[in-house]
Structure formats: C-alpha cells, structure tokens
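Tutorial, part two.
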Amino acid sequence: MTTTKDTRTLPQQRLADLDLMRSAAVVAVVAIHVYAHAYAAPDIILAGGRVGLSALSAQLFFAVSGAALSYTSPPDRPFPIGTYWKKRVWSVYIIFWIAYLFWTVFQGVRAGGFGDAQGWRYLFSVFGVDGLLQSIGIQTYYKIGEWFLGPLLFLYAIFPALRKIGMRAPSLLAAVVAVIVCAGYALTADGNVRFFLLMPLASFTFGILLRHLPVNAPGAAICAAIAAVCVATAPAGSQTGDTAAPRVVLFGLAAVYLFSFVGRRIRGRAATRFLAWFSGLSFAIILMHHPIIGDFIYLWFNPAGSPASVFIPYLLLLAAVILGASLLLKLAERGVKAAILKISGRNGRRSAS
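Running the prediction step on this input gives:
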C-alpha cells in the first residue's frame, strides 16, 4: 500500500472531506425515510437489487467514524484506553439518552402508556443497540436513531486492536481485515452477518486507512470513479436484492474515496464553515429524524402527488429536523454536559480539600 504523509489533525482542524461525507450521509438518510413514508420508494432509493442510498449512507458513516478516530489518535500520540472510552461515552450516550427520554415521555403521554410488561427491553435502548436488534427481529422499544449505532459501538470496541495492528503497518491492517471480510462472505450468505457486521467492518477499516491512501492523486480518483460506475451499472445477477452484496461494498468504498478526493479540494471559507456546522449536527439529526418524520410527514406530503413533488416538502421537513437537532445539541452541550462537568469539578475540589 502506498503511504502518503497526512499531517492534518482533529479536533483542532476541521477536515472538509470528512464533513462532506457526514453531510451527504445525513441528507441521504433523511431523504430515504421521508420518501419511504410518503411514497412507495423505488429500488434506487432503498437499494433493492441495486446500489442505492441506503447502503451508501451507512458506509459513509462507518468510514467517517474510522477516519475521525484515526486522525485523533495517530501513532505518535499516547492512547490511554480510559480516556478513549470516556470520550466515546461522552459523545454518544449523553445526547442519545436525552433524546430517547424526551421522545419516550412525549409519545408515552400522547399514547397514554409507556409499554407493557416487558419493560426490561428498555435496556436495549439504554445501551444504544435497540435499532440493530429491531432490524434483526428482536422486539425493542426502538424510537430514535438508526440501526448502525449498534455496529458502530462494536467497531469502537475493537478500534484499539485495529489501531495497534495499523501502527505496525497499514498494509497489514488492510490485509487482516480483507481476509476476515472475504472469508465471512465466502462462509455465509446470511444477510444480517453481511449487512450488520462485514460491511461495517470493511467501511470502518477503510476510513482508518484513508489517511495512508493517495487521495490527492487525480489518477487514482479517476480510477475510483470508473470502478464505482462499473460496479453500479453492472448486472446484479444473483446479488439482486442483496443490500450488502460484495458489489455494494465495493461501490461504497469507491464512493468514500471520491468524497475524500472532492472534499479535500473545498477551499472556500463559507463552504467549509457550512459543512463544519452541518456535519456537527449529524448525530443529533440521525437521532431526531425518525420521530419528527413520523409525526409531521402527513402534514406536508400529499400521498396523491407525484414523487417529483417531494422536493419542497422534503426541504421543509429537513429544516424541522435540523431545528430539532440544534435544540437537542444545545441542551446536551450547554445543559446536561455542562452540569455534569460542574458537579464533577465541585466534587473534585471537595475530595482535594
């Protein structure tokens, strides 16, 4: 593997290519669910038999997560495992719990109840794996977020091991994960294993390795574009309907590479600031979009209208989701997190005295 030195760092320096990928993935996810609620979504949206937005948006999120962790924990810096997990819990669970509690209370009051005798299933939501388990047929009280939070938490758990291998040689990490993914595809045709484990692992690792790839080389970008077009337009054959087929994964990796190539060429201050702002809301948008869409979709969409008429209502609904996400983020950052820091600081002073 060709290694190029990428001296960019996070969080001191915003990386426009990662912000672009996050932003594109968020817009795609909201579009998929708006369209699916309002109309019978076509194959190209839900990737039924084709390479579509559903699998692509998930791969972008996994790749961005791997890349961001790679930039924030380079080999020449200390990697205290306690600090690593504290940051993961701090960045994921605080905002998730706030959003989940709000919508649970809101929907429970409106429905006149908060569940049945199987209330213990709320534990799945406490740990953020309810969307994943619901997707594979296990009953949960799934209300917010997306299924890919579950696989992402698993990838966070194995990142220290992936990082350790990658520190020795990026090519070794690529080879190890490629063998695991290829063996998995060869040994099982189970869609759950492929979609919820192998595809996320491939995308996440590709994101980790992104800083070592010749992303700035136009020739390599052209090759990636050609590969993406060939994969997307090739006959699906036996892979029809398989949203985690090898061709889907390959298309996603090529798309990640192209997004990085394009994003690194964004220079305008206004464009980079907008991407930084919008991508900063990405997790909050992912958490909020399902309940907002479910409550407001029929106010703005005419089921008798044509699919083309979805554009303006979609923008209105996206604005509503962004507003809700902004309020959630402010509550988490300036309210709950600030209060936790204040209380912990006060307790620390008491212990010192």
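Residues 16-344 form one domain. In part three we will examine how such features are distributed along the chain.
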